[in-house]
Write a structure and sequence with these properties.
Largest sheet: 6 strands, parallel
CATH class of the largest domain: Alpha Beta
Number of strands: 6
Strand order of the largest sheet: 3-2-1-4-5-6
Distance between the termini: 27 Å
CATH superfamily of the largest domain: HAD superfamily/HAD-like
Order of helices and strands: EHHHHHEHEHEHEEH
Radius of gyration: 17 Å
CATH topology of the largest domain: Rossmann fold
């Protein structure tokens, strides 16, 4: 359901929303399980997506009855992911024009992600994006990860706004559940695997960050096709 008032701030998820990291994570998960003779099936991907890394890895262990610990899988994940980041990390379509338009309109923005601060700093640093956000919340800032609403309630407090005054952009079912439970205006921007997620309660399911309906909801003018 659309609201009449323009949002006062915008909160971005990071993985799969700003960057193609969800695709990379699927490759990492596939390699972790290949080494153990297991498959990284779609149902497990869905269960893990949008959750903090330690929770996701524990799910993987329980799903397949692995002997590995979370710490062991985390170390392997870091090793595999490092090579993928250098070779394949990219911003999602429409991100940079959207950031520019939000800045032009004077709408403050933040990031609320299930990833850890070291990883987030590395990813944002590759594109010099950290300076463009008022603040960044990571899994280290909260006690309960998505789909719990804590991270978006905290974002509202940091902005000094009511949750309903925030527009949240999420790509996964767990992320949207978190934002909706917090009472924010939630827009799903699925990509790849998450296109089959359940986004019940979202105000809009956008085709991408360049979707004109999203820009209208934000009260900003769509960018030209050449800028996307």
């Amino acid at each position: 359901m659309f609201r009449n008032s323009k949002p006062k701030a915008v909160v971005f998820d990071l993985d799969g929303l700003m960057f193609n990291t969800e695709d990379l994570y699927q490759d990492v998960g596939s390699e972790l399980l290949r080494r153990r003779g297991k498959d990284f099936g779609a149902d497990l991907v869905d269960a893990m997506m949008g959750r903090p890394a330690d929770v996701s890895l524990q799910l993987m262990i329980e799903w397949h009855g692995l002997d590995s610990t979370v710490d062991q899988l985390a170390a392997e994940t870091d090793e595999i992911f490092a090579t993928l980041l250098d070779e394949r990390l990219a911003v999602m379509p429409g991100l940079l024009p959207l950031l520019a338009k939000l800045e032009e309109a004077g709408l403050p923005k933040a990031i609320a992600t299930s990833s850890g601060p070291d990883f987030v700093g590395k990813v944002l640093g590759k594109f010099d994006l950290a300076r463009r956000f008022k603040f960044v919340l990571t899994c280290d800032d909260i006690s309960h990860g998505k789909p719990h609403p804590e991270i978006y309630l905290l974002a509202a407090r940091r902005f000094g706004f009511e949750p309903r005054e925030l527009l949240v952009l999420e790509d996964s079912q767990n992320g949207c559940r978190s934002a909706i439970a917090a009472g924010t205006l939630t827009v799903a921007v699925p990509a790849g695997h998450s296109r089959r997620h359940d986004f019940s309660g979202a105000a809009l399911i956008a085709d991408s960050l360049a979707d004109a309906r999203l820009w209208a909801l934000l009260g900003i003018e769509p960018a030209s096709a050449s800028a996307l």
